[in-house]
Amino acid sequence: MKNAQEFRSGQVMNLNGQPWVVLKAEFNKSGRNSAVMKFKLKNLLTGASQEPVYKADDKLEPVTLERSEVTYSYYSEPTYVFMDPDYNQVEIDAENLGDTLKFIVDGMTDVCEAVFYDGRPISIELPTTIVRTVSYTEPAVRGDTSGKVMKLATLENGTEISVSAFIEIGDAIEIDTRTGEFKGRAKA
Length: 188
Description:
Layout: E1 2-3, E2 12-15, E3 18-28, E4 36-43, E5 49-50, E6 53-55, E7 59-63, E8 66-76, E9 79-83, E10 89-93, H1 94-97, E11 111-117, E12 120-125, E13 129-137, E14 150-155, E15 160-164, E16 172-176, E17 181-185
Antiparallel strand pairs: 1-7, 2-3, 2-7, 3-4, 4-5, 4-6, 8-9, 8-11, 9-10, 11-12, 13-14, 13-16, 14-15, 16-17
């Protein structure tokens, strides 16, 4: 058991037999009242969220999740199938992938991390930076050099993101998977 004030963002706690990931943890100490921790939590199994408040010295149970390296293999309605280094298949429903789904493409070689709770896969975490190819974008407008000029680009799987004006069709670009934002042109 850990005190509530020891939990940080990214850690997982067990509340009523359910795993909840800490999205935000805020310590609050006011005048006469005791110190409290305000949390923003997301249920790893159902996707529900809540914002409970606990006394800073309340005891909460931490959860340790198992992790395993996997690579994307194929899509089989309604699950995405990943393969670990020992050729074991890990199947994850599309609804559990969330924003990760925007960056999954056939033939991708990125090494991902499968997250398991009680031996059951609950999510996939992509590397922080991935490289994808632009399949369509409008040509840059000549003479527009005022500040940071952005335009929409469509990736090979149909996902649209904002990129710099100098990006062209066929360019490989780097994307930050935490924010979904364009980072720059991929190094050759």
